[in-house]
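Morning run. Coffee first, then this:
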Amino acid sequence: MTMSEDERLRAESRAAVLKALAHPTRIFIVDLIDREGPHCVCDLTERIGADTSTVSRHLSILKNAGILQDRKEGTTVYYSLACSCIADFMTGLESVLHAKHRNDQKAYAAVMGGKQLA
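And here it is:
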């Protein structure tokens, strides 16, 4: 059985969100906003150590993917998570990384035959 049109569209939508997250700076932005709440571009620029245009581009990608939303206060735009579920997603991602680390350690131990490195 081949993939249906609905399944294809769902997979493409999911891939677009994952693609938006697939950059260390964007992961940092999402984590920071999750931990500390809304931030403006100027705050994020300082925290990341990149120029404003680069940070704005990252924010635009995250916003277009539906990960972030913005609100304007005077001339300042603040970015926040569009969905609090992103924290759960990141926790799940950490679980995958821990499982991979455990499997890598087991494989290394098997290769070394139980020998310890000095």
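The chain has two domains: 5-83, 85-118. Good start to the day.
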